[in-house]
Structures are given as structure tokens and as C-alpha cells.
Amino acid sequence: MMKKQIYSKFDKSLIPTLPRTVFEGRIHVILSKTQAEKAVDYLLAQPILGVDTETRPSFSRGTSYRVALLQVATHDVCFLFRLNVIGLTPAIVRLLEDTSVPKIGLSWHDDLNGLRKLKRFEAGNFIDIQDHVREVGIEDLSLQKLFANLFGRQISKAQRLTNWERDVLDEKQKVYAATDAWACIQIYEELERLKESGDYELIRPDENETDTTTAR
Q: 145 and 212 in contact (C-beta within 8 Å)?
């Protein structure tokens, strides 16, 4: 059986040609402390979580905004905590400080810095994908490139620069946010599978002119 082909650097120009993937599970928007308590109780009973944040973009120099959204996903459910509405509630702090359930993020150090501007807390059990990709020889660090490389599918980034502080998030924003958190779990679990099985062939495009469209 052919080994899975992965690339040290994935050709970004191929990403728009790939079939698109979005999170297809349930999405819950959290707008109160009571909802946050119930959501965190549920999340901390799961074996693994994907995490990400969103911040309203600034288009003028000297203007910046605080983290507006914390999204936390399981394999089939995602909770969107609207921090610009409820802040870092005691339940959310409990989630962030939890040391039992692994929480998978990407470039998570930056997210933690943003969250700590809302309230100080001690970070619990977080795993940053960027600390693990090089173990299989991948040099790319972006979520979109990693997902394309490992699964041959595209994650759209079209909603990234939308207003995450708007009164009501639209469906596209909710799906985008949930997909990013969910994708962190998918990438991490596939990396762990490849490391354990050795079932992959690393292709270095600069050394091998193999057509990267075969990446799956």
C-alpha cells in the first residue's frame, strides 16, 4: 500500500483548487455566565478539545481591539464564547486553567497573550500544533496550509477580517470560527497518527518536482 505523501512545504497556489471543508457539527453561541458554566462542564468531560480565538480587525494605525471570541470544539460540537459580551467568566477561566483535558491550538501563545489582557490566569494543558509539525518534516505553520497538506482539502479564510464584535454573528462567521477550532483537533490527531505509524513519505518540492496536486 502506498504511503501517504506529505510535503515539507505545501504550494499555497494549489489551495483554491482543493475541495472545501467546513465544520458540520452543532454550534452553540454562549452569551451568559450560566450558559458558560454548562458549556464548560460539558467540554471538560471530553477527551480532547480544539481551541482558537477571533479579534475584531483594526484597519487604522494605533487602534487595536481585545479578543472578542473564544471557540472551543470537540469532534462534533463547538461552543463560541462571546468574550466581548460576557468577558472571561469564572467558568471560562476554569476551562483555560484546566490541566486534564488536552486543548489543541495553533500559534496558541499569541492567543493566550490576548486572553490574558482580559484577565490573568494560569494556562492549563494546551498543545500548540506548531511545536509538533516539524517532527514529521513539515515546515509550514499556517492552519490552511497544514490542513491542505494533510487532508488535500481547503479551509476558507474569507471571514477572518470580519467584525467579530457585531451584535449577532452571522452563519458564515460561526461556521468559520468553529471550523478553525475543529481543524486543530483533526491536524493534531493526524500528525500523531503519522508519527506513530510512520505511514508517510515526505516530499521536499525544492528537491523533487513531483506534482503536489497528488497530496491527500
A: no
Calculate Rg over the CA atoms of the chain: 18
What does the alpha-carbon distance between residue 133 and residue 8 come to, in Å, rounded to a whole number? Answer: 10
pTM of the model: 0.92
Given a cut of 80, whether residue 37 has pLDDT beyond it is: yes
CA–CA distance, 42 with 98 (Å, rounded to integer): 13
Which residues share a beta bridge with 103? 49, 126
State how far the Cα of 174 lies from the Cα of 3, in Å rounded to an integer.
36
The cell numbers describing 138, all together, are: 513539515
3-class secondary-structure state, position 164 = coil
- Residue reference for cell 509539525: 133
C-alpha cell at 162: 470580519
Question: Which cell is 95 given?
Answer: 476551562
